[in-house]
Amino acid sequence: MNIELIQASPGDEPVLQHLLQFYQYDFSEILGGDVDGTGRFGNISLGELWSDPRSHAFFVKVDGQLAGLALVRQQSYFTGDASITDMDEFFIMRKYRRQGVGREVVMRLFDLFPGRWEVREVAPNDAAQAFWRTVIGEYTGERFEERFVDDERWRGPAQSFDSREPRA
Predict the structure, then answer these.
(1) Residue range 95-117: average pLDDT?
(2) Whole-number mean pLDDT of the chain?
(3) Is residue 167 in some structural domain?
(4) How crowded is residue 131: how many other Cβ atoms within 10 Å of its Cβ?
(5) Structural domain total, the chain
(6) At 52, which CATH number?
(7) Buried-state track 132-147, b at ≥16 Cβ within 10 A, e below 16
(8) Which of 47, 65, 93, 132 has the greatest number of beta carbons closer than 10 A?
(9) Which three-class secondary structure state does DSSP give residue 145?
């Protein structure tokens, strides 16, 4: 299996928005949400993705086929600290799950942006929590912190760690 992590460009926004429809579909099972009268979920705002050098979008391809996406921001979601990288959105299509694709992509991203990281999951998403705890634990040799955030910013667990620290 050939796994690729490809940086997206502004011209790729329509493809990102199409993949984000599947992402929202997956979340509708957890958080609710419905399609509109056109049969689509609303577009996710990509904000300053293309104009802010701290924001990065990636496609995941498996054997040449689109398999997911990752949106990474070099700024803490919680504090705005630019020395912390945030996993803003991460999505692997169901067909490619439980095959090591997500794990491989995440490890590459952690290596690509060395330093302090934050990863967040919404409270009801038990599968995502298990995935991130396992992958971050493997990557860091279990050297990460987790806290549960419950305020106006976020509701759910958040893991933090430093990808520069040697792995056990």
Answers:
(1) 97
(2) 93
(3) no
(4) 20
(5) 1
(6) 3.40.630.30
(7) bbebbeebbeeebeee
(8) 132
(9) strand
